[in-house]
Design goal:
Layout lengths: L3 H32 L4 H5 L2 H20 L4 H4 L1 H21 L6 H21 L5 H29 L1
Helix pairs in contact: 1-3, 1-6, 5-6, 5-7
Length: 158
């Protein structure tokens, strides 16, 4: 018999993992496509671009899959989903006075889904306070690292 509490968490965390992958595609592939529109195949089949983002894809799906047994691992995804759009997309877009790639998917898709996952976690009491803090700190650390990478990349382009 399926435990409805865990089922709602499993569905919400899987949807969030898929949203993070879609968001990553919007961040990486769409800007690359706009640079070489007639040569779209060079972007779609860009092995370096794919390999650069493969760890994100594997980590998102992996965290969603193992969260059925260890919800603390799944709790990392909504932490990233809340902090990354705010730090990277809202913060850097405001600083640079232009929208960064992936801002719309981050703020309008990933952020609300992350709130929903946290609502499910809270309602179903899936994480103890210390587990919530640990997974949140790991997600925040990953988001800060992503922000640092974006700032570094932006500085190298200038």
């Amino acid at each position: 018999m399926i435990n409805s509490q865990h089922f709602s968490f499993d569905i919400s965390i899987l949807l969030l993992a898929i949203a993070l992958i879609i968001h990553t595609i919007c961040e990486a592939w769409i800007p690359a496509y706009h640079q070489v529109k007639p040569g779209w195949k060079s972007v779609v089949f860009d092995q370096a671009l794919f390999l650069d983002n493969l760890p994100i894809f594997i980590s998102a799906i992996g965290a969603a899959v193992v969260s059925w047994k260890w919800p603390i691992v799944g709790g990392i995804l909504p932490a990233i989903g809340l902090t990354h759009p705010l730090l990277d997309h809202l913060g850097l877009s405001w600083h640079d006075r232009q929208l960064r790639p992936g801002s719309w998917t981050g703020l309008l898709f990933v952020f609300p889904l992350s709130l929903w996952v946290y609502a499910v976690i809270y309602a179903d009491r899936l994480l103890a306070a210390h587990e919530f803090l640990i997974s949140g700190a790991i997600g925040l650390a990953i988001s800060v690292w992503l922000l640092w990478m974006a700032v570094r990349e932006s500085a190298e382009l200038r």
